[in-house]
Amino acid sequence: MAKKLDMMNAQEFATLVNEARANDNQSPVFPNPNNPYYFPEISALGEGVNYQDEVFTSAPVQNYNLSVVGGNEGLRYSVGGGYFGQDGVIKNSDFNRASFRSNLDIKIVPNFTLTTNITASHTWSNGMPSEGDGGGGTGGVVHGAVVMPPTVPIYDADGKYTMTNSTPGGTPSNNPVATVNHYKDEQTIDRFLGSIDANWQITKDLTLKVTFGSDMSTANRAYYWPKETHRGNSKNGEAYQRFRKDASYLNENILTYNKQFGKHSINAVGGYTWQVFHYKHFEASSTNYSTDLYLANNLGAGTTYGQPGSSKSQNQLASYLGRINYIYNDRYLFTLTARADGSSKFGVNNKWSFFPSFAVAWRVTEEEFLKDVDWLSNLKIRTSYGKTGNQNIDNYKSLAMLGTMNYNFGGALNAGVGPNNIPNPDLKWETTATTDAGLDIGLFNNRLSLVVDYYYKKTTDLLWNISTPSSVGFSSIFKNIGSLENKGLEVALGADVLTGEFKWNTQMNWSRNRNKVLEIPGYTPSTQGTLSGHLKVNGSWLEPGLPVGVWNLLKFDGVFQNEAQLAAGPRSTANNDKLGDARFVDKNGDGKINYTDDRMIVGDPNPDFIYGWTNNFSFKGFDFSVYLQGSQGNDIINIQRAETNISGPWGNQRREILNRWTPSNTNTNIPRARVTVDPLLLQSDWLIEDGSYMRVKTMTLGYTFTKIPYVSSLRLYVTGQNLITLTDYSGFDPEVNSQGNSNLQLGVDYNAYPSAKAVLFGLNVSF
User: Fold this and answer.
1) What's this model's pTM, rounded to 2 decimal places?
2) Which of 525, 528, 534 is nearest to 679 (CA)?
C-alpha cells in the first residue's frame, strides 16, 4: 500500500467512547461487567486489533509478453501473446489477464493487399465488496478496515468471527477479516477484437480502404456471501450470478486521394462508416442455503429466490465524412473537415447532425525573411474551429417505453405493464464548438521546443434528465437543455539538454482549465443527489454561473471555546450547542444556523492547474527516466471523515481526534466527543480537504547489453511506481474519484480501493 491511515489504538478508542457517553449523559461502556470479553478495563486493552494490518498486504505483480515477427514481400506477420497477473493489496483479491494477438499483411497483387488484426483476451479476477455491495455503506472491506474498532476482537469467545461492531452507538460495520477470508466474487471477461482491411491502390494517387471489424465480449460475475460473514449469516448464505454479452460490428469505407504538383500538395479523404452495438444481460440470486459448498454455482440450492432481471438493447451509428488538407509551398496549411453523424438514440426528428471544422496554419520559418535565422528552427502559428457531437446516453431515451408494475388485486400480487417515461421525439445531439489558437516554436535545431494552445469550448443542447412537476405523472424527462463552457491554456516544453555521450531529454507540460455552467432554462439550482445514504452527505451543487461539481455546504468555523463565544453564537436551530461543539458561519446574519439558509459554495473539485515532468537520461548502455505528475488547487470531499474524524464512537477514529476539545484542551478546532454527532458537521466543509499533490509516478533504471552471441539486445531494468507522493490530503490517495465516470460528482473519496506503490524488475530480450 502507498499509505495506511493513522488510527486510534484500543486504549485511545475506549477512552473516546466513555468520554462521548459522559458528555451525552450516558453510562460508560468500558469496563462492562456483563460482557468483559468485549469491554474490559481500558488499561487492559493495549493496542487492540489493527484491522488495516489484518486486511491489507503487499502483493506481487507479474507480466510476460512474447512476440514473433517476420515474413517476406508477399506476406508479413506478427504473432504474440502475454500474461499479466496482479494480487491486490486487499488480501485474496487479484486480477489476471491472458492475451493473444495476430497481425497479417498479405499482398494479393501488387496494388491490392489484405490486412487482418486479431486480439483475444481472457481475464479472471476475485474482487472484494465495495460500499454499494455491502448495503448501507457498511459492507465494504476498506470501510471495515478503517472504522472497525480495535477494541472488537476478530473472534468471539467461541472462536467464531465477531460479525459486526458491537460498541453501543457504533456503525454496524461488517468484520472485514471474515470478508477477505471467505467472501468469493469471481469475475471473468472474454473479449475478441478482429478486423480485416482491404486496401486497393486504384491509381498512383487514389486508394480505397474497406474495413470490416467486430468487438465481442462476454462477462460473468458470481459472488457468494458465506455464513462466516455478517451478510451471509443474516441471510443464511447469499449467491448471485450476472451474465452480460456485448457486441459491435463496424464497416468503414474510406477513399483517399494524394497529389503533389509544384508547390501544391493535396490530401483528400471521403467515406462512409456504419456501426451497430448489441447488449444483453441476465441476473439472478438466491439465499437460505443449507451448505456453503456450492458457492454461487448452484442458485437452485437456495430456498429463497430473488427477482431475476434481464434486458436486451441495440443502437446504431452511421457517418458520412470528408476532409481536405491543402499545403502551399510547405508554409501555408489549410484543413477542412465535414461529417454528418446519425444515431438511433435520438428522436425521429433529429437523428442526424452536421459537424464541420477547419484549421489554418502558417509555417513562418519557411518564409524568406527567416531563412537566415539559424537559431530559429521552427515557428508555426495555427488556429482552428470545429464542432463535435455527443451521443453518450442510454438507448431509447427518445421513445415511449413500458415498465413493469406490481399491484395487489383480489388479495394476490399481479404484474402488469404501463408507461415508464415521457417520450421526446425532439431529442438530439449534444454539440461542442471548440476554438483553438496555437503556437509551435523550435530553437537551435529543435533542441528546444515550445507548444502553446489556448482553447474555448462551448457545449450546447446538453443531454440532461430534468425534473418535472408531479402532476404529469413522471418525475423527470430526458431532453436537450442548457449550455456550459470550458476555456483553458496548455503549455508543453521540451529540450534535448545534453546530446553527447551523456544524453538528457526533458519534457514538461502544464494545463489550466476553467468551466462554468452558462444556462439551464427552467431549472432550479439544486443538489445532485446524495453521496452516502446512511451518512446523509449531499452531492455536488449545480447552478448556472458556477463550475461543475462544486459543493454548497455550511462553512465550519471552529468550535465554541468559551462561554462568551457560546453566548454570542450563532447557534444551531437543530442542536442544543454546548462548549466544544462545532460552530458555523452565519451566512444570512440572523444569529441562527440553518442548513438551507446558511450554506455557501465551500469547495471546487476542479484544479487550478495540472502538470507533468519527464526526464530521460542515457550514458553508454545505461538509461534512467523519472516522471512526475501533479495537481494543484483541487478539493476532495472525503466522506471517510464523516465516520473517522467526528470525535464519536460510530467507529474507530483517526489519531488526530486525540486533540479534540475538552475542558482542559480548548485551543483546538476539533469538536468535543459526542455519541450523537452533530448532523450539520456532515453537511459542512469539515469533510472537504485540499487534494493538491505531486507524485513520482514512475522511475526506471535500465542497462542494455548489445554484445551477446545470438541476441540482438538484452535490457535489464527496475521500475518504481508511485514511490513518493507529496500531499496534505489525509485519505489513502489524493488521485481519487469514487464516482467513476460521473460528470457531476467529481473529487469524491468514499472508501475507494487504496492505491499501491510497486517495484518492478524486468527483462527485455530480442533475438
Assistant:
1) 0.90
2) 534
